[in-house]
Input
Amino acid sequence: MKRFFALVKKDFLLDYPYLVNPKTTFKDKKLRKKSLLQLFVFGILLVYLFIFMKPVFKLYDSYKAAGIPLAFLALGFMSYLFMLLVFSFPYILSKIYFSKDVETMLSLPLASEEILASKFLSLTFSSLIYAVFLVIPIMFKFGFAEKMGPIYYIYGFLGLVL
Output
Protein backbone atom coordinates (compact mmCIF):
# COMPACT_ATOMS: atom_id res chain seq x y z
CA MET A 1 0.00 0.00 0.00
CA LYS A 2 2.93 2.30 0.67
CA ARG A 3 4.20 1.76 -2.88
CA PHE A 4 0.73 2.50 -4.25
CA PHE A 5 0.61 5.88 -2.51
CA ALA A 6 4.12 6.64 -3.73
CA LEU A 7 2.97 5.93 -7.30
CA VAL A 8 -0.10 8.12 -6.86
CA LYS A 9 2.08 10.93 -5.52
CA LYS A 10 4.38 10.52 -8.52
CA ASP A 11 1.45 10.75 -10.93
CA PHE A 12 0.08 13.84 -9.20
CA LEU A 13 3.54 15.38 -9.17
CA LEU A 14 3.85 14.86 -12.91
CA ASP A 15 0.32 16.08 -13.71
CA TYR A 16 -0.21 18.80 -11.11
CA PRO A 17 3.15 19.75 -9.60
CA TYR A 18 1.84 22.98 -8.10
CA LEU A 19 -0.58 21.00 -5.90
CA VAL A 20 1.99 18.58 -4.49
CA ASN A 21 4.98 20.89 -3.98
CA PRO A 22 4.34 24.51 -5.00
CA LYS A 23 7.68 25.91 -3.75
CA THR A 24 9.89 23.82 -6.01
CA THR A 25 7.46 24.03 -8.91
CA PHE A 26 7.91 27.73 -9.45
CA LYS A 27 11.71 27.51 -9.07
CA ASP A 28 12.10 25.07 -11.96
CA LYS A 29 11.68 26.85 -15.30
CA LYS A 30 10.16 23.89 -17.17
CA LEU A 31 7.67 23.06 -14.40
CA ARG A 32 6.83 26.74 -13.98
CA LYS A 33 5.78 27.00 -17.63
CA LYS A 34 3.66 23.85 -17.41
CA SER A 35 2.05 24.94 -14.14
CA LEU A 36 1.32 28.45 -15.34
CA LEU A 37 -0.22 27.05 -18.52
CA GLN A 38 -2.48 24.74 -16.50
CA LEU A 39 -3.47 27.56 -14.17
CA PHE A 40 -4.20 29.74 -17.21
CA VAL A 41 -6.45 27.05 -18.65
CA PHE A 42 -8.25 26.77 -15.30
CA GLY A 43 -8.73 30.54 -15.37
CA ILE A 44 -10.21 30.33 -18.86
CA LEU A 45 -12.55 27.59 -17.63
CA LEU A 46 -13.70 29.89 -14.83
CA VAL A 47 -14.45 32.62 -17.36
CA TYR A 48 -16.36 30.02 -19.38
CA LEU A 49 -18.26 29.12 -16.25
CA PHE A 50 -19.47 32.66 -15.75
CA ILE A 51 -20.24 33.37 -19.42
CA PHE A 52 -21.70 30.07 -20.60
CA MET A 53 -23.54 28.94 -17.50
CA LYS A 54 -25.80 31.98 -17.33
CA PRO A 55 -27.83 30.95 -20.41
CA VAL A 56 -27.71 27.32 -19.29
CA PHE A 57 -29.21 28.32 -15.94
CA LYS A 58 -32.06 30.01 -17.82
CA LEU A 59 -32.85 26.64 -19.39
CA TYR A 60 -33.98 25.46 -15.97
CA ASP A 61 -36.95 27.83 -16.12
CA SER A 62 -37.95 26.37 -19.49
CA TYR A 63 -37.72 22.83 -18.18
CA LYS A 64 -39.64 23.80 -15.04
CA ALA A 65 -42.42 25.39 -17.12
CA ALA A 66 -42.60 22.23 -19.22
CA GLY A 67 -42.93 20.17 -16.04
CA ILE A 68 -39.67 18.27 -16.46
CA PRO A 69 -37.12 19.92 -14.15
CA LEU A 70 -35.17 16.66 -13.85
CA ALA A 71 -34.34 16.97 -17.54
CA PHE A 72 -32.16 19.96 -16.63
CA LEU A 73 -30.13 17.76 -14.31
CA ALA A 74 -29.96 15.04 -16.97
CA LEU A 75 -28.70 17.66 -19.44
CA GLY A 76 -25.83 18.45 -17.08
CA PHE A 77 -24.84 14.86 -16.56
CA MET A 78 -25.12 13.97 -20.24
CA SER A 79 -22.97 16.93 -21.27
CA TYR A 80 -20.45 15.90 -18.61
CA LEU A 81 -20.33 12.35 -19.97
CA PHE A 82 -19.90 13.66 -23.51
CA MET A 83 -17.05 15.95 -22.45
CA LEU A 84 -15.51 13.08 -20.54
CA LEU A 85 -15.65 10.83 -23.57
CA VAL A 86 -14.24 13.41 -25.97
CA PHE A 87 -11.50 14.91 -23.83
CA SER A 88 -10.50 12.03 -21.56
CA PHE A 89 -10.09 9.31 -24.15
CA PRO A 90 -6.90 10.77 -25.70
CA TYR A 91 -5.59 11.54 -22.23
CA ILE A 92 -6.18 7.95 -21.11
CA LEU A 93 -4.37 6.62 -24.16
CA SER A 94 -1.38 8.88 -23.60
CA LYS A 95 -1.26 8.27 -19.86
CA ILE A 96 -1.49 4.48 -19.89
CA TYR A 97 -0.41 3.19 -23.29
CA PHE A 98 2.01 5.76 -24.68
CA SER A 99 3.68 6.83 -21.45
CA LYS A 100 7.34 5.94 -21.13
CA ASP A 101 7.21 5.79 -17.35
CA VAL A 102 5.01 2.68 -17.48
CA GLU A 103 7.79 0.73 -19.21
CA THR A 104 10.27 1.94 -16.60
CA MET A 105 8.00 1.09 -13.69
CA LEU A 106 7.29 -2.39 -15.03
CA SER A 107 10.99 -3.19 -14.76
CA LEU A 108 10.92 -2.19 -11.07
CA PRO A 109 9.71 -4.52 -8.32
CA LEU A 110 6.18 -3.12 -8.53
CA ALA A 111 3.00 -5.02 -9.22
CA SER A 112 1.34 -4.11 -12.49
CA GLU A 113 -1.94 -3.76 -10.59
CA GLU A 114 -0.42 -1.01 -8.42
CA ILE A 115 0.81 0.86 -11.48
CA LEU A 116 -2.54 0.63 -13.23
CA ALA A 117 -4.48 1.58 -10.09
CA SER A 118 -2.32 4.66 -9.51
CA LYS A 119 -2.77 5.73 -13.13
CA PHE A 120 -6.51 5.16 -12.82
CA LEU A 121 -6.72 7.27 -9.65
CA SER A 122 -4.87 10.15 -11.26
CA LEU A 123 -7.11 9.89 -14.35
CA THR A 124 -10.17 9.95 -12.10
CA PHE A 125 -8.96 13.16 -10.47
CA SER A 126 -8.38 14.72 -13.88
CA SER A 127 -11.87 13.79 -15.03
CA LEU A 128 -13.40 15.25 -11.87
CA ILE A 129 -12.04 18.62 -12.96
CA TYR A 130 -14.53 18.54 -15.84
CA ALA A 131 -17.29 17.81 -13.35
CA VAL A 132 -16.36 20.80 -11.23
CA PHE A 133 -16.75 23.14 -14.17
CA LEU A 134 -19.74 21.53 -15.84
CA VAL A 135 -21.96 19.44 -13.59
CA ILE A 136 -21.56 20.94 -10.13
CA PRO A 137 -22.96 24.38 -11.10
CA ILE A 138 -25.95 22.68 -12.76
CA MET A 139 -26.39 20.43 -9.75
CA PHE A 140 -26.34 23.43 -7.39
CA LYS A 141 -28.81 25.38 -9.55
CA PHE A 142 -31.21 22.45 -9.55
CA GLY A 143 -30.76 21.91 -5.82
CA PHE A 144 -31.37 25.55 -4.90
CA ALA A 145 -34.34 25.91 -7.26
CA GLU A 146 -36.00 22.70 -6.07
CA LYS A 147 -35.08 23.40 -2.40
CA MET A 148 -33.24 20.12 -1.95
CA GLY A 149 -31.70 19.20 1.37
CA PRO A 150 -28.06 18.44 2.15
CA ILE A 151 -28.51 14.75 1.37
CA TYR A 152 -29.09 15.68 -2.29
CA TYR A 153 -25.67 17.36 -2.50
CA ILE A 154 -23.94 14.46 -0.77
CA TYR A 155 -25.54 11.93 -3.11
CA GLY A 156 -24.81 14.15 -6.12
CA PHE A 157 -21.14 14.37 -5.24
CA LEU A 158 -20.94 10.64 -4.59
CA GLY A 159 -22.65 10.04 -7.94
CA LEU A 160 -19.96 12.09 -9.67
CA VAL A 161 -17.09 10.37 -7.93
CA LEU A 162 -18.38 6.85 -8.35
In short: Helices lie at 2-15, 17-20, 22-25, 29-66, 70-97, 100-106, 112-145, 150-161. The chain is about 85% helix and 0% strand. The mean pLDDT is 83.
